[in-house]
Request: fold
Amino acid sequence: MMWAMPLYEVKYREEDEWTEISDVELVDQLYRTYNKVTPVIKKMINGNEVSTPHGTYRLKLRGGEQPEMPAA
Reply:
């Protein structure tokens, strides 16, 4: 079995759809708004959405065991 990394999504203020973003993009945006990012990410892991002046962020998929892909 393999472990999946969490995926994050953002809905920007001017858009109506959620867009997948990397963890690096997420942390970059959160640092612009919050002094401490870890408590904010913990809220997201617990199922909450987090808002900033730029948009709303959420966890798309929790990490966990995923079936291994067959070797090509």
User: Anything to note?
Assistant: The chain has one domain: 7-60. The two ends are 17 Å apart (CA to CA). The mean pLDDT is 83. Residues 23-33 form the longest helix (11 residues).
